[in-house]
Specification:
The protein is of the alpha/beta class. 34% of the residues lie in helices and 21% in strands.
Length: 507
C-alpha cells in the first residue's frame, strides 16, 4: 500500500541535495540497467528487440529506437503485464466516468497529446503516478530548508491554478485526477479552462489566491494582458510565487513581461505524457533541468547521432527510467531542443535545457459572433483526437474564420471513420461551449503534405495566410494606384515646353 510515509521517503530521495554530478550519474545508470533488464524479461517486444545485446553492459546508443507508431502497433506485446490490451484500454478511456479510476485497480491510463501526429496510450502504476507529484514538490519550486522543507504545508496548503482545456484523459489533466487522497489537505488545485469567459476565470483566480499558476504560453500571455490593462488584480493580492509554462514555447521577452507584471518567477517545464517528470523548470533562471536520474534525453540529428551542446537538434530520444509497466526506451519525439553548452548559473548538477523550439504550428483563431477574433488553442481540437488510436498522423488546417479541416492518416492496416473522428472532436468543442463558432471537416488521406523543410506542420492557418496575402495585394494595388495618381498629378502640373524660337535669318 502506497501511503503518506512512502511518499515522504520518495520525496527525501528526490530532493536535489547531491554533493557532486557522479551521484546523479550513478542513480541514472542503476535505474537504466534495472529498466532494461525488466523490459527484456517481461516484454515480448523488447525481448525480440534486445536479442543479442547484453543489457547489463551495452551502451545506450547500441539499443534500437522506438517510434510512436511502433509502440502503438506492438502495444499488447510491449507492455509487461499481459492483462493489458490496447482495445480494452481504448474502451476504458472512451468513458469519461473512468477519469481518475485505476484500471484493474492498479494502473492509471492517459492519452498523449498527439502533437506529434498520433495519439498514444500511456499506462503507469501507482508508484509512477505518485512520483510525478513528488518530483514537482521536490524540484518544481524553491525549497526553504533542507530538512522537511514542505512541513509548513500541513498548516498552509500549496495552491495551484491549472489553465488548460476541459478535464480529460490527456496527461496534465489525468495526473491531477489521480492526486492521492493524502495530498489533498496540503495541495489544493483549481482547474480553469481556456474557453471559459475571461472575467469568470479572473474572478475564480482572485478568489482562489494561487501560489502557483501552470498553463499554456498563450493563456499565460492572455492573463498578462488582463493584468496590464487593470482588469485583474492578482499582483495586488501578493499571493503568487511562480508561473510555469507548459506545452508551448514561451519567448524570453514574454517571460520577462510576465515576471514584471506579476512579480513572480516564470519557469519552463518540458515534459510529455510519456514522461511527465522529464524536466523541472529552473527556479532561478530561464530554461529547465532534465531530471536525469529519472529519464535520459538524447538530443540528436535526423540520423539519431548526438549533437553537441549549444546546437539545436532535429529530434530527441527519450528513455523513461521509472515506468516499468510500459517501458519507453529511446523513444523518438520530433521536438527541436538545444542543451546549454555551460552549466546553469543556479548551480544545479542536472543538464540544462537552454531552448525548446517545439513543433511546427501556426496559431489558430475563431471569429466570435460579435466579430472579435480570439485565439483557439491547438490543444482544444487535439484533445478530441486522443481517442482515435487508429490514426498515424494528423494535421489541423484553418480554412475560414470558423472553418477547420482535419487531415487524418490511418495506421498501417487500419481504417478511419471520418464521422467518428468528427464526433469525438465536436464532443470536446461542445464541452467548451464553442460548437456555434466552429465547423469541422474531416479528410482521411494516405499521407500529409510537407513544407519546404520536409517537416509537417500539425496546425496550418491557410485562412490567415490568404488574408495576409489579400491585404498585401490590396496594399500593393493601393500603392500602385496612388503612384499612378501621383504621376498624373505631376504630369498635370508640368507646363508644356515653349516652342523653340524660329532660327534667325542670316544677315
Amino acid at each position: 500500500m502506497f501511503g503518506p510515509l512512502r511518499f515522504v521517503m520518495m520525496l527525501q530521495k528526490l530532493y536535489p541535495f547531491w554533493r557532486n554530478p557522479s551521484q546523479v550519474e550513478a542513480s541514472q545508470q542503476k535505474r537504466l540497467r534495472a529498466i532494461l533488464a525488466h523490459a527484456a524479461e517481461n516484454s515480448p517486444y523488447y525481448r525480440r528487440r534486445f536479442a543479442g545485446l547484453d543489457v547489463s553492459r551495452c551502451a545506450l546508443s547500441e539499443l534500437p529506437t522506438l517510434s510512436k507508431a511502433e509502440m502503438m502497433e506492438n502495444f499488447d506485446e510491449l507492455v509487461t503485464d499481459p492483462r493489458l490490451r490496447k482495445a480494452d484500454l481504448a474502451a476504458f478511456v472512451d468513458n469519461p466516468d473512468n477519469l481518475g479510476r485505476y484500471y484493474l485497480g492498479d494502473y492509471s491510463v492517459s492519452h498523449t497529446s498527439g502533437s506529434q501526429g498520433q495519439p498514444a496510450l500511456i499506462v503507469q502504476d501507482r508508484e509512477a503516478v505518485y512520483l510525478v507529484f513528488a518530483t514537482q514538490f521536490a524540484r518544481g519550486t524553491k525549497l526553504k530548508r533542507r530538512f522537511l522543507p514542505h512541513l509548513g504545508r500541513l498548516i498552509n496548503p500549496a495552491r495551484m491554478a491549472v489553465l488548460t482545456v476541459q478535464p480529460g484523459f490527456y496527461p496534465s489533466a489525468s495526473a491531477f485526477a489521480y492526486l492521492p487522497a493524502f495530498l489533498k489537505p496540503v495541495f489544493k488545485v483549481l482547474h480553469l479552462t481556456v474557453s471559459d469567459p475571461m472575467p469568470s476565470n479572473i474572478r475564480k483566480l482572485e478568489e482562489f489566491r494561487p501560489d502557483y499558476i501552470t498553463g499554456y504560453a498563450s493563456s499565460l500571455e492572455a492573463f498578462g494582458r488582463e493584468q496590464a490593462e487593470g482588469r485583474m488584480n492578482l499582483t495586488e493580492l501578493g499571493c503568487l510565487k511562480q508561473i510555469t509554462n507548459v506545452a508551448e514555447p514561451l519567448s524570453d521577452k514574454s517571460a520577462a513581461r510576465l515576471e514584471q507584471l506579476f512579480d513572480a518567477h516564470v519557469t519552463d517545464e518540458y515534459a510529455m505524457g510519456e514522461c511527465m517528470v522529464l524536466s523541472s523548470g529552473c527556479t532561478v533562471g530561464r530554461g529547465a533541468h532534465v531530471n536525469s536520474d529519472l529519464a535520459i534525453l538524447e538530443v540528436v540529428d535526423e540520423n539519431n547521432q548526438p549533437v553537441p551542446p549549444g546546437t539545436e537538434g532535429s529530434k530527441v530520444l527519450l528513455t523513461n527510467l521509472y515506468n516499468r509497466v510500459q517501458p519507453i526506451i529511446r523513444y523518438e519525439i520530433d521536438d527541436r531542443v538545444t542543451m546549454s553548452a555551460k552549466p546553469c548559473g543556479c548551480g544545479s548538477f542536472l543538464p540544462h535545457i537552454e531552448k525548446i523550439s517545439g513543433r511546427s504550428k501556426d496559431k489558430l483563431f475563431i471569429e466570435a459572433e460579435d466579430g472579435k477574433r480570439r485565439e483557439l488553442p491547438y490543444y482544444l481540437i487535439l484533445t478530441g483526437l486522443h481517442h482515435v488510436l487508429e490514426m498515424a498522423e494528423h494535421q489541423i488546417v484553418q480554412t475560414g474564420p470558423r472553418n477547420f479541416l482535419i487531415r487524418a492518416v490511418p495506421l498501417a492496416g487500419q481504417k478511419l471513420d471520418p464521422e467518428r473522428i468528427r464526433s469525438v472532436v465536436m464532443e470536446q468543442v461542445v464541452s467548451e461551449g464553442l460548437d456555434r463558432l466552429i465547423d469541422i471537416e474531416i479528410a482521411v488521406v494516405p499521407e500529409l503534405p510537407r513544407g519546404p523543410s520536409g517537416k509537417i506542420s500539425r496546425a496550418l492557418n491557410e485562412y490567415a495566410k490568404t488574408q495576409a496575402g489579400n491585404k498585401q495585394a490590396g496594399q500593393t494595388q493601393d500603392s500602385k494606384t496612388q503612384d499612378s495618381k501621383t504621376q498624373d498629378s505631376k504630369t498635370a502640373d508640368v507646363k508644356p515646353a515653349a516652342a523653340p524660337a524660329p532660327a534667325q535669318a542670316a544677315e
